[in-house]
Sequence to fold (148 residues):
Amino acid sequence: MNIYFCGSIRGGRQDVEHYQRIVKKLGTYGKVLTEHVSHAALSEKGEDAVLDGDKAIHDRDMDWLTLSDVIVAEVTQPSLGVGYELGRAVAMNKRILCLFRPSSGRVLSAMIRGADGGAASSLFQVRDYTEEEVEGILEKYFSELTKN
Fold:
């Protein structure tokens, strides 16, 4: 299974430790195409110094998004890029799980919260979580995926 993980890069790297925990768990379910998002060395400037700039990053990530079977997005830290990726994934009819930590004090965008299909079988799901709950939420989500 190809898994596309979304997390903020240029929007802020405050949640990188959460990303690391999530990506580690996702790796037990398949290949995480965007594992680099969880790397602590990746700064808010992103990786454009390594690649051929923003266009190359966009095109590579859109290729990965197309190849993915499921998208998991940590959406607590607001990010234009993550929102864009989610919109493109919706247009591709991909399965999407968004994870949000209410303890952050932030309020999740209505465009994300409102897209939740409301059922465990919905293509777009939003789950609130605490650090202690995230692994269990992922286990439940992926066990439901493998049933269907």
About this structure: Helices lie at 16-26, 54-67, 80-91, 110-113, 134-147. The chain has a mean pLDDT of 92. The beta strands are 2-6, 31-32, 70-74, 95-100, 124-128.
